[in-house]
Fold:
Amino acid sequence: MIRKHIFPILCTIWAIVLWTGCDESAQVDNPYDNQISENADGVVGIDDKSIDPTTIQGLHKLIFKPTCANSGCHDGLFEPDFRTIESSYNSLVNQPIIKNDEVDPLPARVVPGDHARSMIIRRLETDLNNNSGIMPLSVDPGSDWSTRKAEYIGYLKAWIDAGAKDLNGNSRQALDYPPRLEGMLVASGSTVYPRSGRFSPVQVPKSAGTVDVWFAYSDLESGPEAFSGLQFNHSIHYMEFDSLNWMPMQYVGTPKNAVGLNQVDVPHYFRFSLNLNSYQSGDVIWLRTRISDGTNKVELPNGNSLFNHRQYCTIRLL
Structure:
């Protein structure tokens, strides 16, 4: 008999609970009622009209999303990935370059604080290696890139030079990039020997005997006086250098200024003397050097260097 009365009682209690739950006065506040909706770029709480065009948010809204992330381009198919603000930032800043400049290699897609050494700017302004085209290769209908190109590139340069800050306004520390080769010349006293072309060997008569070879390097963090571990090597085989043949190179406080690798005058601070007596007329002498900026120890040129850079660092005996 007791069991017969339990079921109606439970039903009555359950009905009261349901009725109470439907009472608006008893409802708990929805924690999302006051949530600010996302803008077109998927960022919460940012008014499109107030986005600074020199921020990563503004660049994504004005350039990366409408112009670069179109189908078949930087839409996640390959890097840089411009689908979102975060993917844009993380695939640009301090990121390695897939296809570099064969004449003037750059260290990263975006180098914080230095738009001139950021590949993204070069791709937007020049035809890389004369076979890559100027980015963007195509734009979607209705794009204002062609009419506002200079303005947009200016925003991008300003963002980079201000430290390439992320979504939260923080700058990613620039990497300590290794030194890079800027020039090489051969001289005897006041005579500077010529080249037959930009990347051709220096033409030196066998009768010159001993010559001075000068190198120029650049480094974003260190001046030439701070370099250490200065050495040079030479060989008639462009890929074979005797590991026991490394000899000291010296820093000279008064440099020899001359046109360098990139066709501008650069100071050549590093010198060694090379005796040509063991070579024959017609020989091509390949040169390599080693230096350290205190963080990076590098060999310039090396086996992975562009061939025209390796050939640039050669002497042809006449």
In short: The two ends are 122 Å apart (CA to CA). The chain has two domains: 48-161, 180-317.
